[in-house]
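Sample intake sheet
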Amino acid sequence: MKSIAALQALVTASGLDGEPSGAELDAIELEMPLILAEVDLLDVEIDLLDRPATVLDERRIRRARNRVLAERRDLTNRVGTLGGAA
């Protein structure tokens, strides 16, 4: 029977403190408007799980989806001007 302890060093990197790097935090900050738009869309979808959608609910879903699409477009344009990749 092989010991897991011998393989542990290969699985976990040493020297990591578990905190995100500055570059990772910058990437999260750049993507935050999209993340918030997706959370809003999810909130609308959760609200409608247990009842049929009314005309106003359909409008809320459409607006939330359009906001997600707009934020994706804006993020793509921002990343394109920065010369990086998201």
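Comment: The two ends are 43 Å apart (CA to CA). The chain has a mean pLDDT of 85.
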